[in-house]
Design a protein that fits this description.
- 55% of the residues lie in helices and 8% in strands.
- It is globular.
- It folds into four domains: 3-158, Beta Polymerase, domain 2, CATH 3.30.460.10; 164-247, Hydrophobic Seed Protein, CATH 1.10.110.30; 251-455; 463-509, no CATH class.
- The longest helix is centred in the C-terminal third of the chain and has 25 residues, at 431-455.
- The model is unreliable at 1-7 and 93-98 (pLDDT under 50).
- It is of the alpha+beta class.
- Helix 14 (267-281) crosses helix 23, helix 17 crosses helix 20 and helix 17 packs across helix 23.
Length: 519
């Protein structure tokens, strides 16, 4: 976030804290905001505990801010105030253009130390009086000065923060809430910390409990992990703790499934390597066998980077979902494996069955329809780029049909294809094969751009004109004929209305379409 936006975001936070402090004299900021602030990191979400009625405090804050009040859990008195960009802009025309300030309120009974003892990890079990946070908040949203003397820290979180350790706050942390299992790994990877040995043992012991976690929470933690650089290492970490297969059981069947000799790894390791090679291709992480010469061959353009960074949903960018597709792209190989007489393994139909399986997995984990459809398209088509031509570069028609069928996922499919090649060959790859793969992708991308420019400005003929000129009535055939014309236009085979009509007549005469005449 630019500095000016940080400053304005901090002003909104300061205003919220001022209202909280004046409303509840016994309020504390707790959890991740304290942790991140002590580390010099900025945070937009803040947890507050009060000795008063959290609902009453939250409602007052929302009214004063002009924000939205959300009752999260009436039984446990947990409420949320969401101060959106639009709401901030109504008060301040210089409000940040993206993001929202989210404040969660809960009650603590007795002493705040009792509340902290019930939290998940020691680095999140610290509290600071709201007034102290407010007095030390810098314009950039971090804390200025040393406030460690004001930190309520009953479990040694400051010491673990200094040592970079994720430590469970008690022996039953994961049994009380199995959602903390994935969160432990996410915090470890996000903060660059290390899970201590005793906590790691507890995670392994409770890993099977991930299946009991609400699907929405599992989805959220997976997306946060995949959004981080070095996501392949995060996936391996999940697997080493028994959490990967517990969250996505279908991946368990991929382990130790051997592949043809053109593959260096078994199906599961190949799938994880595909995440790693994707991150290498987009410049987000190194790859053990990669080098700068290889990266120079990757098609690169600001438009492609913008495509990867753009979001399919509020929580998930295309790049994050592409990583998930890389992990799942061969998920159906175990169930489609067969052996030829020569002993060679085949996986006929695995992309089609894998797409359906990936859709089922994402639906089970409560991914949105848009997210699931995007990943499904990537998995279904991941083999298509190298199969678009048996010899040389694909035809213009093949490129048109590819993007017609893949729509907004088309560029993503090309990135998966590049990653899949590297993860297939591993250390056995050759620069000649890699150059050929990148040249293919580069040609497809540029041909698509050319076709977009050729077709986008104007349609040679519309449906009404087509029906009048040919004397046919409305029906499915009209749309199919128009698509045939558009494909030929993209390929440079028709360039005028007369050309389009001639092609339409030839198409009808070929009897590929059944048309209804207007006579």
């Amino acid at each position: 976030m630019p500095l000016s936006e940080c400053t304005r975001a901090c002003a909104s936070l300061a205003r919220a804290l001022t209202i909280i402090d004046s409303t509840s004299k016994h309020s504390y900021v707790v959890g991740g905001f304290v942790r991140d602030s002590l580390m010099g990191r900025t945070a937009r979400d803040i947890d507050v505990v009060v000795a008063d009625d959290p609902f009453a405090v939250a409602q007052h804050v929302s009214r004063e801010l002009g924000a939205t009040f959300v009752p999260l859990n009436q039984e446990h008195c947990i409420a949320r105030v969401v101060y959106t960009s639009q709401q901030q802009a109504e008060v301040d025309s210089n409000a940040p253009g993206e993001g929202a300030l989210v404040v969660d309120f809960a009650r603590y009974d007795g002493h705040v130390e009792d509340d902290l003892a019930r939290r998940d990890f020691t680095v999140d079990a610290m509290a600071v009086p709201t007034a102290v946070i407010l007095a030390n908040l810098s314009e950039q949203g971090a804390l200025r000065g040393d406030i460690t003397g004001c930190v309520v820290d009953p479990l040694g979180g400051l010491h673990d923060l200094e040592d970079g350790v994720i430590r469970a706050s008690g022996p039953d942390v994961f049994r009380q809430d199995p959602g903390r299992l994935l969160r432990a790994v996410r915090l470890e990877r996000e903060l660059g910390f290390t899970i201590d040995a005793q906590t790691e043992s507890a995670i392994r012991e409770c890993a099977h409990m991930v299946s009991r976690v609400a699907a929405e929470r599992t989805r959220e933690e997976l997306l946060k992990l995949l959004a981080l650089p070095h996501a392949a290492d995060s996936i391996r970490r999940l697997d080493s703790l028994g959490l990967l297969v517990a969250a996505i059981p279908e991946l368990g069947t991929c382990r130790d499934v051997e592949q043809p000799t053109c593959h260096f790894w078994d199906v599961l390791e190949h799938s994880i390597q595909t995440v790693a090679t994707y991150e290498f291709v987009i410049g987000q992480a190194d790859w053990k066998y990669g080098n700068d010469e290889m990266l120079e061959l990757v098609p690169d353009d600001p438009a492609y980077r913008m495509y990867l960074a753009s979001h399919v949903s509020l929580e998930a960018s295309r790049s994050t979902l592409i990583k998930l597709a890389c992990l799942l792209h061969d998920v159906a190989k175990p169930q489609t494996k067969s052996l030829e007489d020569t002993g060679r393994s085949r996986f006929l139909g695995h992309s089609k069955e894998g797409a359906a399986l990936a859709r089922d997995i994402l639906q089970r984990l409560r991914f949105s329809a848009q997210e699931a459809a995007f990943v499904e398209t990537l998995v279904y088509n991941h083999l298509r780029p190298p199969q678009m031509s048996t010899e040389g570069l694909p035809t213009r028609r093949a490129v048109y049909r590819f993007f017609r069928d893949t729509a907004s996922a088309g560029i993503g499919v090309l990135y998966v294809a590049m990653a899949d090649y590297l993860a297939c060959r591993g250390p056995l790859f050759t620069m000649a094969e890699w150059r050929s793969t990148c040249d293919l992708v580069d040609f497809i991308l540029h041909e698509h751009e050319r076709q977009e420019l050729a077709v986008a400005p104007s349609r040679l003929i519309d449906g009404c004109e087509l029906m009048r000129a040919l004397g046919i009535r409305p029906g499915p055939a009209v749309g199919l004929i128009l698509e045939t014309i558009r494909e030929a236009q993209a390929a440079g085979m028709v360039n005028s209305r007369d050309d389009a009509l001639k092609l339409a007549r030839r198409t009808i005469e070929s009897k590929h379409f059944t048309v209804r005449t207007s006579k």
